[in-house]
């Protein structure tokens, strides 16, 4: 495998792992070592696009244009740049938004049946969505995110119930899910996290008990005349569970950051 292929492989693995800053570093290192390369400019641009920030958007456009200046018929650059322009705000960036049609037309002329063209067609359908369709898409995205969170919680609960915590350093960095779960469990070790682990092992039961206690407390408060209607007091039983969920989410985010750092170091060590 050539040095350029090594850099491209690093960029791809880091992008899949969600390490957008690491992708930019890998792409820039490749450009510094190999000189201007359209594939590396494509990864550099995608690493900026993923941040969804105005400053990064400017850098992404600069990278897209630099890559296309080297290879005007690069399908990945054309598709990525066109999709980037489709998502641009037409009021704030009219010139950028206006480039989408020309880029899309150019890609269809060059590679009408390519994977890049199909991906761009999906992005164009997304850009043409109506108001109600947008609401449905947002609802579907929230449901998918909720299912993902639930799946992660169940996996973590199973790991906690098993009682066996593999060291994060012993897990292959290429196995993203295993590495993140191992790092998560490692950060939840120790006596201070015992309540978190306990609720995590019995998350569904604790949620059900908390809701039941909340309803019972509100009923008792109304019957005793302490309150005239249902209020927030009974739902304070949910506070510990919500705090634990926030702790789980924060720990998992940190575990993902550590995984990307470990993967980046592993890929760099391979050369």
Characterization of the model:
The chain is globular, with a radius of gyration of 24 Å. The chain contains 12 helices and no strands. The protein has 271 residues and is an all-alpha fold. It has helices spanning 3-16, 20-34, 38-49, 54-70, 75-86, 94-110, 115-127, 131-162, 176-187, 194-201, 203-223, 239-270.
The rounded distance between the terminal residues' Cα atoms is: 11 Å
Helical residue percent band: over 70%
pLDDT below 50 for ≥5 consecutive residues: which ranges? Answer: none
- The percent range for strand residues is under 5%
Determine Rg (CA atoms, Å). Answer: 24 Å
How many DSSP H or I helices? 12
Mean pLDDT: 81
What structural category arises from helix and sheet content? mainly alpha
Report the major sheet.
none
Order of helices and strands: HHHHHHHHHHHH
User: Looking at the structure, what is the overall shape?
Assistant: globular
Number of strands: 0
Task: Write a compact overview of the structure shown.
The chain is an all-alpha fold and 271 residues long. It contains 12 helices and no strands.
What are the main properties of this structure?
mainly alpha; globular; 271 residues
List the helices and strands and how they pair.
Layout: H1 3-16, H2 20-34, H3 38-49, H4 54-70, H5 75-86, H6 94-110, H7 115-127, H8 131-162, H9 176-187, H10 194-201, H11 203-223, H12 239-270
Helix pairs in contact: 1-2, 1-3, 2-3, 3-4, 3-5, 4-5, 5-6, 5-7, 8-10, 9-12
